[in-house]
Every structure is written in C-alpha cells, then in structure tokens.
Amino acid sequence: LAGGIILGVALWLRHDSQTTNILYLQLGDKQAPNTFYVGIYILIAVGAVMMFVGFLGCYGAIQESQCLLGTFFTCLVILFACEVAAGIWGFVNKDQIAKDVKQFYDQAFQQALMAESETNNGKTVVKTFHETLDCCGPDNAMGAITPLWRDDLCPKKDSLLKTIIESSSCHKKIDELFSGKLYLIGIAAIVVAVIMIFEMILSMVLCCGIRNSSVY
C-alpha cells in the first residue's frame, strides 16, 4: 500500500500541468532544465519496487520462509540506501533546480525583448511561463515595468491598472512552484523511510522467530 501511495504521488508530480508545461519547453536548441525529474523518477522506481518487495514479504511471512524474508530484508536495505542517497542529492540541489529554471526564463525573456525575437521562440517560451504561473517579468526593475510596455507578453487582466497591480515576479513564482513540489517529495521520502525501518525490524523479528520455532 505504501509503495502504491508513493507511486501515485510520484506520477501525479510527474504529470502535473504546471511543471510539464515549463520543463518541456525548448528555447532554440536548448532544452529547459529538467533536473527536477530525477527526483521524481527515483520516487517512481522506489514506489514500484516497494510494491513488488511488499508482495515478497507478505508471501514469505505466510509461507514462513526464512529465505524470502531474508531477501525481503536485503531489498529493503538497498532501497533505504538508495532513498537516503536521493534525499542527500535532493537537499544539495534543491536551490539549484529553481536557479536553473530562472536562468532559462531570463534567457527567453531577453530574446523576447530583442528585435529578432520573431525568428526564434523566445516569445512563445516567455508567454508559456507567464500564462502557466500567472506572472510577468523577472525579479528586477525591467520586470516591474514589463506590463506597461509589453502587454503582449503578460497575462491579460480586465484593465491595465489591474494587470500592473496583480502582476507577480516570475522568479518568485518559480521558487514557489519548485519549493512546494520538493516539499511534497521530501514528505513522501520521509514517510517511506519510516515505513521501511519498521518493515526491516519486523521482518528480522519474524525471521528469527521462524528460525527459533523450527529448532523446537
């Protein structure tokens, strides 16, 4: 059940419309940074393997097989080690993910403002960011005045005044998007880790109990 829940959460994060709209963008021959998906794929793999390993543990317990329970314990130790490694990697790269996406957005924004922007897809990329995150412009003075002179790039509001007042910095929105998603991944990883620890303890207790009972 835990494996199924983890798999469900990971698949939801993988196919979330906001992240997929942004991370599948391409600026010329440059792809949007998709380091974020590394953590998602690890969660998907852990969830799928947990479901199989859980079945192995249940079958081993029903059959009172020390071999199956030992295999179950070994698989859990490997999964736990992989998850700890992934957690350390995610903690180290959590700020870098948003930073890379912001740099990609800034490059597209600069191209969208250039005269030759019609020859590339900078304007399309920027508009996708603006519409998906409901923001307009980077986190600087240029971004603050963008709704005034480039209303073709910003999400349309009822009036110009409302557009200026309600326009948020895209840098801030990118930070909010990925910090929220990474927070969910972190919670899922902690829950899985706690469940795994209990599973390892209980499987060893059961394995030792079967071994002792077989002696008598």
From TrEMBL:
InterPro entries: Tetraspanin/Peripherin (IPR018499), Tetraspanin_animals (IPR000301), Tetraspanin_CS (IPR018503), Tetraspanin_EC2_sf (IPR008952)
Gene Ontology cellular component list: basolateral plasma membrane
Subcellular compartments: Basolateral cell membrane; Membrane
Transmembrane regions listed in the UniProt entry: 36-62, 68-92, 182-206
SUPFAM superfamilies: Tetraspanin (SSF48652)
GO molecular function, one term: lipid binding
Protein's GO biological process: adaptive immune response; regulation of cell population proliferation
Name of the protein in question: Tetraspanin
Family designation: Belongs to the tetraspanin (TM4SF) family.
Pfam families: Tetraspanin (PF00335)
Swiss-Prot/TrEMBL keywords: Adaptive immunity, Cell membrane, Disulfide bond, Immunity, Lipid-binding, Membrane, Transmembrane, Transmembrane helix
Main location: membrane
Topology in membrane: Multi-pass membrane protein
